[in-house]
Q: What sequence folds into this?
């Protein structure tokens, strides 16, 4: 995890330009908005939020949007950009730990699981379960399946780039990525992938009732998204799930 935190805390080539970054978060906002709680006073946590360019748009639909990212440099950028926003709070690890039990209506975890190992995911799921209200919902999105061909990811990225006007920059970005230390960090830090039935089993084991959504949230359609709620006490079988399988791949 520390290697991924270091990677995301310094300049990288994941997003090839500002247009890529804006198009990515605009697509996320369009997909997430229909899933938000239909209450003006709702409290939502974006866990592993990154630069959260859609935070203002999402916050207009709810009461309070909490933003948490493990990378200090990301939190600093969020604080500079959104620190005065009346509906948004940027959390550091201490702030996150201090959130009261059963205080959140929804938790968003988008394109994060690949950077967590089995122990980190288990700890995170316990925290999500603690923080959600009994009727709250957990969205886990952009989950990568094992053995996904690299070419499938590349073609998906290029189609998204062409549709949003940055195809040339995306092609150059693939070259920069190949020459970067991304592959080394993946080999050292690990990269977690999950089959849908494995993900559902892990959620059940953490005390959630979950389902796979019909389509993925975000610009990569062949990945998976899941919606979960705290399971009734009689269905809470935490500890029953097997540890997740971690596999390494070379595509982002």
A:
């Amino acid at each position: 995890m520390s290697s991924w935190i270091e990677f995301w805390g310094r300049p990288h080539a994941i997003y090839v330009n500002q247009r890529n970054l804006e198009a990515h978060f605009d697509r996320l906002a369009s997909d997430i908005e229909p899933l938000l709680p239909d209450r003006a006073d709702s409290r939502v946590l974006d866990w592993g939020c990154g630069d959260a360019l859609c935070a203002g748009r999402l916050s207009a639909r709810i009461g309070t949007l909490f933003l948490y990212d493990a990378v200090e440099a990301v939190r600093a950028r969020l604080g500079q950009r959104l620190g005065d926003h009346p509906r948004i709070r940027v959390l550091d690890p201490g702030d996150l730990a201090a959130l009261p039990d059963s205080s959140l209506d929804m938790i968003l975890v988008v394109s994060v699981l690949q950077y967590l190992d089995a122990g980190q995911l288990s700890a995170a799921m316990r925290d999500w379960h603690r923080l959600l209200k009994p009727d709250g919902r957990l969205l886990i999105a952009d989950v990568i399946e094992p053995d996904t061909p690299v070419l499938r990811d590349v073609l998906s990225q290029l189609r998204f780039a062409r549709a949003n006007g940055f195809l040339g920059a995306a092609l150059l970005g693939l070259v920069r990525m190949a020459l970067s230390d991304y592959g080394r960090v993946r080999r050292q830090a690990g990269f977690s992938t999950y089959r849908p039935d494995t993900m559902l089993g892990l959620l059940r084991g953490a005390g959630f009732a979950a389902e796979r959504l019909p389509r993925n949230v975000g610009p990569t359609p062949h990945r998976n998204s899941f919606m979960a709620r705290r399971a009734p006490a009689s269905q809470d079988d935490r500890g029953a799930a097997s540890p997740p399988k971690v596999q390494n791949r070379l595509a982002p």
Q: What stands out?
A: Confidence is low (pLDDT under 50) at residues 239-252. The radius of gyration is 18 Å. The chain has one domain: 2-235.
